[in-house]
């Protein structure tokens, strides 16, 4: 009964292509937010203090690495789910043997999806950590850039990243947040 209920829910959710695309986009935005947070937090910048809604809506597409990781993750998740269904349907004896005959119990389906979701979240955090560490190594090795203010004063530093309203520069061990508007010159973080 429980298996029928969950299958009905999945069929209704994934029957409509628009629903599938909306879910995939929400997952992509969440992945982009996580990756951006991990990227900036290594420089002691909480990106949620400086980024707007639009920055997060385009986050999965702002960096090619995040885009590839997002697409790969979504496709891998769908593939694993489909392989599980195929194996269970076409080879029920070997499936049951591999699952220690627990696939016949009531709690199996809900536990399988719960553990799958937990593994998915852990995979996201691990991927974001690896991405952030690689990104930090690459940023530190970049050449400095120069930003000229309206009054012709200039500031140099290594570009960490930017949002719609701010530019983040690294000067030695100091992180500077430079607003795009002309009213404030800079914000020192470290």
TrEMBL record:
Transmembrane segments: 20-37, 57-81, 113-132
Keyword annotations from UniProtKB, A to Z: Membrane, Transmembrane, Transmembrane helix
Domain of life: Bacteria
UniProt name for this protein: Uncharacterized protein
Origin species: Myroides odoratus
Origin organism lineage: Bacteria, Pseudomonadati, Bacteroidota, Flavobacteriia, Flavobacteriales
